[in-house]
Amino acid sequence: MGARVGAGVVWDSALLGYDMGDDHPFNPLRLELTMRLARGLGVLDGVEVVAPVSAEDTDLERVHRANYVAAVREAPSAGWDLGYGLGTADNPVFDRMHAAAALVVGGTLTAARRIASGEVDRAVNIAGGLHHAMADRAAGFCVYNDCAVAISWLLDNGFERVAYIDVDVHHGDGVQAAFYDDPRVLTVSLHQHPATLWPGTGFVTELGGRQAQGTSVNIPLAPRTCDAEWLRAFHATVPSLLGAFRPQVLVTQCGVDTHIEDPLADLALSVDGQREIYRVLRDLADRYAGGKWLVTGGGGYELLRVVPRSWTHLLATVLDRDLPVDTAVPVDWLTDVRRMAPRADLPTTMGDDRDTAFEPWGGGREQPVDTVIRDVRSAVFPLHGLDPDDPRD
Fold first, then answer.
1. Which family does it belong to (predicted)?
2. What is the domain partition of the chain in residue ranges?
3. What is the pLDDT of residues 23-68, one digit of tens each?
């Protein structure tokens, strides 16, 4: 396999320090197992893996308030009355929390800087994707919002239009909030319907601020939405919006908690479907953003069976080293994981043997997902000069 020239991976084992505890769902083991699997399959052979440079306070304060950054730094020694969303079940305080979270942000900034400098066209930080953190509080396992910091930095370093696409099962609320009034940033989030899942935001009617109407796009999907329905909704909305917005770089949050086996949510995607999503995102970056694609990880809580396979496909897609879904999982990797979890039912191939074919919107039989497609197109498309009723738009 030959790596694409101009693609890079940001990684260092120090990123495993973002660790909220063995019993917390956001376990860094998923990152470690992903990198082991990717290496075992040769995905990273010959690839320069770049270590992240920790974000400075001035970087963090692009989107976070200075008093919040100070609170995060002081939290491990501050006792229990913390505020700022810190010290909760979702966001427990842990040793060196500020340093660990700043390194995650630094990883995504490192990727952004390499793209802006022209060193690479694509870069991926699987430890990133902490899309829930707000200006003044932690939320949803996220201390600092690396996606928003990187987008802010890109806007100050040669990019006038940035498109952000979030495919995590949870609404990309922190990134949307950071740029809700900024017409230079198009935020698109496909997520489980907010009436059925935390954080309870991400309705179609959230369209952006007065000066940025139509640059906040939300596609809420019903529980049990499968690969074909998800892809039908995506293709019926996102490519047309990117074509109208004309981004100069595509930033994506690629959480894999959309999988049917994920314990914290209720969509029904497969690893095969997630692999197809990555391939579509790559194509859209090439078609609409001059090939510039900044990729982050995100959620995903089936640590052994799902996340390592899906994010290995993500790494492979970024590097143009696509793996067939029937590729065998390496025996050495399976042996190592069985030592950790002797009773685990582990997958033996890189797919779930699911068909990802879908019927495009605009023709053929009506499907349940078409309700949200029509709602999104009706609310957003006219704001971009697009015809919501024309399948060609």
1. Belongs to the histone deacetylase family.
2. 7-64+98-384
3. 999 999 999 999 999 999 999 999 989 999 999 999 999 999 999 9
What per-residue confidence (pLDDT) applies to 136?
98
Each residue's pLDDT tens digit, 298-309: 999 999 999 999
Q: What is the pTM of this model?
A: 0.97
Q: CB of 20 within 8 A of CB of 94?
A: yes
Q: Which residues contact 298 (CB under 8 A, 6 or more apart)?
A: 128, 129, 130, 131, 166, 168, 253, 254, 255, 256, 257
At the fourth CATH level, the homologous superfamily of domain 7-64+98-384 is Histone deacetylase domain (3.40.800.20)
Residue 189 · residue 202 · CB < 8 Å: yes
Classified as helix, coil or strand, 31 is helix
Q: Is 263 exposed, middle or buried (0-12, 13-18, 19+ CB in 10 A)?
A: exposed
Of 98, 132, 170, 259, catalytic: 132
DSSP lists the bridge partners of residue 166 as: 189, 253
24 is catalytic: no
Count of C-beta atoms within a 10 Å radius of residue 365: 6
